[in-house]
Amino acid sequence: MEQIDIKQQIETMIADEHYRPLSLAQLQETLGLSTTEEFVAMNKAVNELAEQYVIVFSQKGNLMPARMGGYYQGALSVNRKGFGFLDLEDENSIHITEANLHGAMNGDVAIVKKLPSFYGSDEGEVIRVLQHKTNTLVGTFFTSVGKGLQLRLDDERIKSRLIVKNWQAFKMVSGTKVLLKVLRYGDPMELEIVQLLGHIDDPGVDILSVLLEYDIDPQFPQEVMEQAQRTPSRVSPKEKEGRRDCTGKMIITIDGEDSKDLDDAVCVEKIAGGYRLGVHIADVSHYVPENSPLDQEALKRGTSTYVVDRVVPMLPHLLSNGICSLNPKVLRLTLSCEMEISEAGEILNYEIFPSFIKTTERMTYTAVNAILEGEEEACRKYKKLTEMIGWMRDCSRAIRKRRHEAGAIDFETPEAKIILNEQNKIEEIQVHERKEAEMIIEDFMVTANECVARHMKWLEIPALYRVHEAPEPKKLRDFAKIVLLMGKRFKGSVEQIRPLQLQQLLDSFKDDPAYPVISTMMLRSMQKAKYDPRCLGHFGLALEEYTHFTSPIRRYPDLIVHRMLHKYGFGTALDPEMMKQDELKMEEYGKLTSERERAAIEAEREVEDMKKAEYMEDQIGKIAEGVISGVTKFGFFVELENTVEGLVHVQKLTDDYYHYDPDTLSLKGERTKKIYRLGQRVKIKVTGASKLHQEIDFDLVRPRKEKREPIPAAKKKAGPRKEPNRPAESVPIKNKRRRTRRRKPKPTQA
Fold first, then answer.
1. Which of 118, 234, 393, 526 has its CA 20 to 30 A from that of 476?
2. What does the domain layout of the chain look like in residue ranges?
3. Where do Basic residues bias regions lie (predicted)?
């Protein structure tokens, strides 16, 4: 038996819930190993697994799973105060003090040893960092009196001393922002300057700094751009061979006014008993050969990133806005999913095939909504499309009704639309309104993704699925407590929860001012959606099969799905060896693309929070109304109608001494018995904001008739303002930087 087989057998054995620690002799007997060579191979496999902390040895020398010995592996979360956590799916998070981090940084994959605890909480120590997440950092040089230029990193969670090897090779002034490469981790940390980004006050440098901190580079490597330059700009007659001609159909794109990467187009025909829905997607895989520089760079990026002033594309603009974009009235190569939809919104039949199209019109959400609302000018301008757009609305509503009856959950949390001026300063923060046209495209894309996933599963070909597993019972129990506080009862078992139960619960809050808070809390109780080669279903959409097929210009998993369909889905002879190799690749693709998606989301959120704080710096003294979105022992957070969130610190509540009640997630006045809780509407005054720290401070505006009673002197507590990071016992928000949902370029991110 080969060593690799022995290693796999040991891993399978110790993963069994009924496994009991075995000695080496017992392990040899259990595996049925008899020869000296097999015993040597077993010892080598055991040593490798021990080195990787997959197994550990008990005091008696028996082999046991690492967790049984108190060793845990995972990605660390480190906050700005310096301490960290290791989140565990089925157990309490492990708290790690700054001293016990031993230089490990946020996002690092590490082995953590659980320590004896005398205070009821689980504490741990980092034993080894397996993988450093951070390879580059962004910082600002500033002048310190008597010390010259000093470096301050943008990531305030890093507490190590810093040594910059090559700072003297650059001409810098106070306020110069730089990109740095990590040469050595630990304390001190050694760095070298890679690039000068500009001055901290230069327009756009703030956003560029955030992007680079998340390893999102607006620039493409030279070899990638050279390949993009060689890509044809029009479809040749030969490229149409083997594809279905769909140029005779009335096909339109529907996107935002500013969108340039148009990767999906739709058409609807009325047929007996329902509709024929066509979803036509740009065939990006035709122009991005596997393992080419373009392909490798697209995998590295994983996704396009959308921030307030720019798009950092997954593919160069020559492709994303050119030959791959379904621009109006020009020939384009596509992969099409044509479906027959019943009047009840059920999928009766579908067909997936390579095609070429020529879109009839480039429509916007605004124009389609105007037509659906009966605006005369829009209906007159697009007279030839109005009938089809009406069918699209009817087909979409039927699909949506069917999905709703199945239990699909619609998280209607408000999304910010930030309007910038020419100087990159915010003029206004609007709330993005999701209207009929946006929902039509979302419904059509979800339906096409469902059909493609179903098809790939039926074919049993390598694929990447979009997976959203059922929520963890522990998080659901915490959410159920919040719901109970809001006057609603959680029905059913958290161990066997169905999407329909959560959907009905959320719907019961529709007319409640606390609806946005409840929607956000429910979303946070869910597991993160990810990409996986296994078809595990999508809980939020209440679907057994789901993938991402409809956005290959801006998502690498969609590109992979297209590539697999071309290889194995259109009647081509199957190559078992090639399929086996592709199946092995899918695991790594799923992991990488899920990580890059999370990085893009975090970058987008951080830019949004930074710009909101910058905007509020000019709103000091303004009064507004909002809803309490989070309560902690140091105060409560209030979200305004424009999605800006700020902190009312407990020290600002001068009419009483307030205690935090973790059971009811509220602040209670000791004498007045006044309570501040989730979902409560309050009036606030903006008292402070910091773009640098992404913090916004509010003061409570009380009714004039309300008498202010000073806090008794004996109970006044002085001290520095606490960082508004929510502690473990409070509402489960990840950190200060995570206050709003991701701003999506198109509502197809399910």
1. 118
2. 3-67, 70-131, 136-202, 224-468+535-609, 473-526, 617-715
3. 734-750
Q: Over the stretch 125-157, which tens digit does the pLDDT of each residue have? A: 999 998 898 899 999 999 887 778 899 999 988
Of residues 404, 417, 408, the one with CA closest to residue 365: 417
Closest alpha carbon to 208 in 157, 154, 283, 168: 154
The model's pTM is: 0.86
Alpha-carbon span 449 to 498, nearest angstrom: 21
Q: Give residue 749's pLDDT.
A: 52
pLDDT digit string (tens) for 569-584? 987 778 889 999 999 9
Listed residue (551, 573, 609, 552) closest to 733, CA to CA = 609
- Residue 601 is predicted with a pLDDT of 95
Pick 136-202's CATH classification: 2.30.110.10, 3.30.450.20, 2.40.50.700, 2.60.40.10. Answer: 2.40.50.700
> CA dihedral in degrees (160, 166, 170, 173; nearest 10)?
20
* pLDDT tens digits, one per residue of 686-736: 999 999 899 999 999 987 655 444 434 333 333 333 333 322 222 222 333
Contact 724, 648 (CB under 8 A): no
| Architecture of the domain whose range is 3-67 | Orthogonal Bundle (1.10)
How sure is the predictor about 93, in pLDDT bands with cuts at 50, 70 and 90? confident
Whether residue 340 is predicted with pLDDT greater than 60 in this model: the reply is yes
Among 92-96, 279-283, 291-295, 550-554, which stretch is predicted with the lowest mean pLDDT? Answer: 92-96
Cβ atoms of 235 and 247 closer than 8 Å: no
Task: Check residue 719 and give its pLDDT.
Answer: 37
CATH class of 70-131: mainly beta
Distance CA(696)–CA(636), nearest Å, equals: 12
pLDDT tens per residue across span 528-572: 999 999 999 999 999 999 999 999 999 999 999 999 999 999 877
Long-range contacts of 122-127 (CB under 8 A, 24+ apart): 122/91, 122/92, 122/93, 122/94, 122/95, 123/94, 123/95, 123/96, 123/97, 124/72, 124/86, 124/94, 124/95, 124/96, 124/100, 125/96, 125/100, 126/76, 126/96, 126/100, 126/101, 126/102, 127/53, 127/71
- Could you give the dihedral angle defined by the CA atoms of residues 306, 617, 197 and 599, in that order, rounded to the nearest 10 degrees? -30
Correct CATH for 617-715 of 2.40.50.140, 3.90.420.10, 2.140.10.10, 3.90.226.10: 2.40.50.140
Widest pairwise Cα distance in the chain: 90
Q: Give, for 85, the enclosing helix (H) or strand (E).
A: strand 84-86
- Please give the C-alpha separations between residue 98 and each of 95, 125, 126, 536, in angstroms, as whole numbers: 10, 9, 10, 38
